[in-house]
User: Fold these one by one.
Assistant:
Number 1:
Amino acid sequence: MKRVVEGSEAVAEAVRLARVNVISAYPITPQTHIVEFLSEYCANGTMDARFLRVESEHSALAALIGTATTGVRSFTATSGQGLALMHELLHWTSGARLPIVMAEVNRALAPGWNIWVDQTDSLAQRDTGWIQLYCEDSQEVLDTIIQAYRLGELVDLPVMVVLDAFFLSHTYEPVDVPDQKLVDDYLPSWEPKFQLDTEKPCAFGPLVTPAFYMEMRHAIAGAMEDALEVFPRVEDEFEKIFDRRYGEIEAVSCNDAEIILVTSGTATSTSRLVVENLRAKGEKVGLLKIKLFRPFPVELVRKVLAPAKKVAVIDRNFSFGASGIFAQEIRAALCNTMKHPPVFGYVAGIGGRDVTADVIEDIYRRAKASDFPEGESVWVGLQEN
Amino acid sequence: MAKGKEMMGPPSILIPCSYISTESNKTGAWRFLRPRYEEKTSPCSAACPAGEDIGRIEMLATQGLFKEAWETILWENPFPGVCGRVCYHPCERACNRGEFDEAIAIHTIERFLSDTAARNDFKPVLERLPARKEKIAIIGSGPGGLAGAYFLALLGYGCDVFESMPEPGGVLRWGIPSYRLPLSALRNDVSQIESQGVRIYTGRRITRDLLEDMYGTYDGVFVCCGHSASRSLGIPGENLKGVTNGLDFLRRVREGEIPSVEGLSVIIGGGNTAVDVARSVIRFGGKALIAYRRRRQDMPAFEDEVAMLLDEGVELRELVAPITITEESGEYVLTLGSMKVAGEDTDGRARVERDGDTTEEIRVKRVFKAIGEVAAESWFEPPEKGTDIKILNTCVMVNRPDHPAVVFGGDLTAGFKSVVNAVASGKEAAIALDIVFRKGLDSVDEGLADCMVGDGPAHSMEIHMKGERYKRSSHIVPYEEINTDYFSFTQGITQPRLLRDERLTSFEEVDLKISASVAMRESERCFNCGLCNQCDNCYIYCPDMSVVHDSSIQGRHVDYDYCKGCGICVVECPRNAMSLEEED
């Protein structure tokens, strides 16, 4: 049924439909509405789930590591500093191979305190062994959370579904909230490959010597590779029932494009409009949306970008001392191909600043005007002194 | 979870997981901080002159262990029935709960426990030391003398108490009206004291010669005969027939006399005796006026008593002092001079002086003096100087060669005159004599310091006799050390009382009893500062399962093989009954 819902409610509805058993989260703007919806669902019986109240994000994820080890479907949501506080346990979750799903509302890191969108919080966690999926609108958020359980439980890895602060979390959009029966058909109950058994107690996470540790890490690397294989199947099945799919990446007007813009999150929607307008003016521009960031779909990205003359990556994040993080990933994906276009890195919209159509068009014009990148990163829209 | 059972055995994916016991990994070696059970001193018990173990008393009362709670009072104070009624309860002013919501009504619970013991005819089982050969004579059967005799009896000494009046109790028997202290309450406490082997000889006024005789027959003498002679007003007309001693009036009432009090009586003074006389006059149908040289807030009388006094219709005149009393056709004219505040005394009360020449005259039927008492005989007083004199906290000890040890105590030596201070003095005398007999005179100071509650000045018999309380730290737990997350705001008890009209016509006890459920609810509010009440938070919160239950009195111990010293147990202890210290 189509309903006009807030992005946060779309998350909560997906969690309900996924028949999650345990939710543990600590409120933080802009994630708070998600937690509020879910705690109400638990309180009023809309969901047959336990809501564990905790004193921090660290504890929230620690609690879920416990619940997921007992074999029950577990969910959390956080933002910015909250995710930073979870860092240690992010590693723990993947190392323990627990398919916990998290909604991560991108928020800028302090100081100075800033509650607005910025992807640095989630991208800073790229090496923790979590699958990361960046969403563009509320429908995608809802669908991706349901898919995340399917994907995570197939490869035994945790999944982070990422959405922009306010532009998604607090914006109302029409969203198709599917029937429970359809979701049940799509998402079977989780059959864990191991679980805590009090009849046969064991310690999880004991000391692992160099003789074994490397194999365990290699297994996680393998699971990430599996996820690349599994993801399209997860989408196939989803499409069969719900008639929607998103792709690991989405290429828009890229076939004959000379310059391809690369985006993620809500900046993609604006870029679609810009590309359409520029095309109408005869500009040979294309757009590549990255949804699956971990595992990074290297082959797919190469295939789309290799034929272009230039690639312009718009990063709403920054790795200090390096460059925008998507730009790094794109460069890394391309560098081992024999012939590849130069990658222009642009940083825009940091800390919630608007990435307007004018900003995107300006980026396109700058990339077009220069034969080679002016630098590893060009910050767009900085205030003049 | 039927599926879970089938999946028993090693996981089918590679995860760090071990079926081997981790017990061999003694994580206690990581510890640099060491938690331990260490009970501390509650502020109420340190504030109680008798050093009652109040935190523990409330804990036992909460559990419905009324006899044990009563016995815990008796360790330190043989007068729970009396003190539950007439003590000025400094404990409640020190109560940490007072900073949270309202202080615990400690005195109300003490009275409840004593009434319950009397109603059920409880026979206390008290710790006592083996009998000794020394015999002690005690002069005076007031609270100080009887307390001294009682504690000496528990310490193994034979005790004879000599009392000039026909019944024991001193000021408790003859000086406090029955609406505050019913005879039955006093008699219950006294008979409990006697049941410990104390012999009381009434009607035996001690003379100087008799005292000399005692030095030959007893190994020690405790002189605690109180102050019974009235202080002088030092004004013209003081010796007129209608000017009498307030304490004498109270005694006559307690002897059963129904005095004639028609017309206006003026009571001069601001202590409890003044208030007692005024309220008694009112009950006999007279009119009463209290003339006090300072202000209401400076009155030594208990605040509650003053409030009820005013409610009962007694007039209070502040900042007036008597100048003369004259007789005029069967009545008296009392001339009062105005006073003014001229600074503050060391105790915080106003210092007053005459305010010009302003005077006023009041026609009255009689005047009662209630400005305090002094020793009836000068030889009751301890000698003031000499190398053989040892000045203790509330007593004076005299040790002459070839002479039994003599201790002067109670009102004779105490700085503050109240029942519980007399009990404290009796206890100090008993412990001091015990140390003299067991270890010699030189050990008295050290021995008394060893059994102090907190920083003193109160002494504890339980500590002196090396009971469980001996193990406690003397650290007094302040409010900041209570983990108030574990307590919710709860209203304290309201003392039920006779209505004003009921009070005016009888000498029935004003404060009514409370039910066991009310008493338990009130005692449950107690933080039990510094004491373990077996709440088991340490066990529940220990992340290493290193708090282990056992059969010790503590009920649990820390397993240092695995305790990492995180300190959570100490933080989550609501009442600071644990300590965290750096490892050596």
Number 2:
Amino acid sequence: MTTILQPDHVTIPGVSEPAKSRATRRVRGLSDRAIAWLFVAPTIALLLAINIFPLVWMIRLSFTSLNLSMSYLPLRFVGLDNFTDILTDEDVWFRLQTTAQFVISSVALQVVIGFGLALLINRQFRGHSFWTTMILLPMMLSPAVVGNFWTLLFQPQIGPFNYLISLFTGVPPSSFSMTGEVALAPWTIVLVDTWMWAPYVMLICLAGLRSIPDYIYEAAEVDRASAWRQFWSITLPMTVPFLMLAVLFRAIENFKMFDMVNLLTSGGPGSTTELVSITLKRAAFEKWRTGYSSALAIILFVTVFGAANIYVKVLNKVKQR
Amino acid sequence: MSGSAIANGGLMRWFRRGPWEAGATILIGVGIVMLVQPFSLDLYSYSFVTILAGTLGYVIVSHFPE
């Protein structure tokens, strides 16, 4: 038999009996729904304060000409002018193309390397767990840490990366700078991003590979299908939804990429590696064009939100499998 | 079958989530391509409106019945 403890039998020092019974009555009067709301309310309040309010404020600012370096000027409503400026500005257009090139190259490399690693890790071999942990290590680091230590590795004078390249090619190590040359800098950020995030793609692909039932391969063996045929007819088609998931997730993340690129190249040399997130930061905190940068932020937000909808759609398809 | 049931059936046939969601998804995808393509500034200029239409459309049609 279950014993229910009655809290009103507990004497609380310093609280008078009528006050206590009034409080107990009030708590007992609340429905389950009200109590649930009571618990959720602080989180909702926090969410409203740090997410929703800034978003609404940003939407409001995007229709104004606010410039924080001249904040003494009255706030002027300019309608859609900021959006028109951005969407007819060739510089922003070029920065979006740079971002797209970065997203496409890094995601393509990550998928190829991540899928290859997943195929390797999916086999049982000696030291399997150790190598899995080692491969996953870069993903666990903070982008700020990664940006800083790769900057050190890429140092033309003391960085080991240039010495390694010199060992294979014979080019003097101090004769080139990975982050300082127009031809190399875009590949530098792609290389570091791939190093960091290919393990993540590997994890998703591994989940896909492990979800394929063994009996399908056994049936293929009975039909004397070659390993190559099994890969093209079983492994790849059954991993495609997981690959799509990885591609979409990494594409959205790379579209927003800021910290690592800012630490590695700061958008340079010139504007070779200036992703749109760096353009946004420069407009907001170097030129102090708050209205303009709010409008740009909204364009990026809507783009990411749209892409996230596609991501959720694919995720639901994967779940249905 | 009553008239309203037929009308409801007709509406249900038109407002099924699947095709509308697929349409909105395609619109978002086309908008993103327009935003980052290197060929035409005009396409870039209309990209945001396309993405916005697709995204808002997606939010609306995701409430349609299956």
